[in-house]
Amino acid sequence: MRTEPHAVGVNPDYAFDLDILTELTEESGVPGYEDAIREIVERELDDATDEVHTDAMGNVVGTVGDGDYSVVIAAHMDEIGFMVRHVTDDGFLRLDALGGWDPRVLRAQRVRIHTDNGDLRGVIGSTTPHTQDDDEAEPTVENVHVDLGLDGETANERVTPGDLVTMEQTTESLGEHITGKALDDRVCVFAMLEAARRLDDPDVTVHFAATVQEEVGIRGAQALGVDLDPDLAVALDVTVANDVPGFDEAEHVTELGAGTAIKLKDSSVITTPKVHRRLQDLAADRGIDHQREILPAGGTDTAGFQNTNGATPVGALSIPTRYLHTVTESAHHADIEATISLLTAFLETETGTHNYTL
Fold first, then answer.
1. SS (H, E, C) 27-67
2. Which residues define the annotated binding site?
3. 319-342 pLDDT, tens per residue?
4. Domain contains 353
5. Taking Cα atoms as reference points, which of 82, 83, 65 lies closest to residue 73?
């Protein structure tokens, strides 16, 4: 069953639902274990699309329309996190990374350990400056430890190697920004869901795909590229916004508040020129704020669809985000709305007759 779009906004200028965005970002779901996020996405897609299904990897696909030409819109559900690799006799946890962490941001953080018998809270320890040596080793994922506040025997009874660990943080509005953990890529999952709600009777078949295991190698999108074999694919992800002190303008990649970012390249993909040009022309025609994205390093689900089942035209929209892969990732309300608006306009005007071949 289809329903009307949400009308609850973080700002009267934007018609999106902060409660759903908060629910998505605060919930936990590391690569391969996206179960809790999948439930939210299935619930929302059930309201916004005609049919919803999942696959053996855990990808969720909501489909609307019945045209011969098919388009996939993809955003990944997983967030970077950890798996417990060892519990010491003294009750401290040692971790194995799931995704790309900068170890510098780990010290003195609160975490949540997800066990078969419920969640536990812990802190990643950091030695006091009063006792640090000048030559103390830089932190690595392998040498950080989680303190549960439990003795060794109890910790070993309650935690098992293989249990999952995620960062603990609330999602907040901060001026014109939204900040919290896992905006990568839940803010784009949210944008995709909102576009699904706004889209009405498309001329083509649209598959809204929430993918898994992007943070460990774009694995879910690669599987869907084969299973869905779309005629066109557009992926959504966050991108670097280094528009903060300490970086010159050439290092910004994108800037918060300047609009949705239309990707030209990253280290995994060069988007199809005819696709990104149509996105740019459409944004200009509709008065939607936008900027070009040229990302020196990093990959997205876009690459998972480009050639996994033969050549497929691909495009990508990105939401500029500061402080990526930390618990204070920050995006601008206006850029979120611009991404939703451009994606919706792109799907409303996709007839299946555009020639994207080169």
1. CCCECCECHHHHHHHHHHHHHHCCEEEECCCCCEEEEECCC
2. 76, 184, 215, 237, 325
3. 999 999 999 999 999 999 999 999
4. no
5. 65
Picking from 191, 212, 187, 215, the residue whose alpha carbon sits closest to that of residue 298 is: 215
| pLDDT average, residue stretch 79-105 | 94
Catalytic residue (one of 27, 168, 194, 214): 214
Q: How many whole angstroms separate alpha carbon 236 and alpha carbon 302? A: 8
Query: How many structural domains compose the chain?
Result: 2
Q: What's the rounded Cα separation, in Å, for the pair 316 and 57? A: 23
What's the pTM value of the predicted model, to 2 decimals? 0.92
Tell which of 122, 145, 167 closes a domain: 167
The pLDDT, as a whole number, for residue 141 is 85
Task: List the binding residues for Zn(2+).
Answer: 76, 184, 215, 237, 325
Residue 214 known to be catalytic: yes
Range of the domain at 136: 81-167
- For position 327, which CATH number holds? 3.40.630.10
Region 191-208 average pLDDT: 96
Taking the C-alpha atoms of residue 8 and residue 213, their distance in angstroms, rounded to an integer, is 31
CA distances from 219 to 67, 104, 257, 259, 302 (A): 27, 27, 31, 29, 11
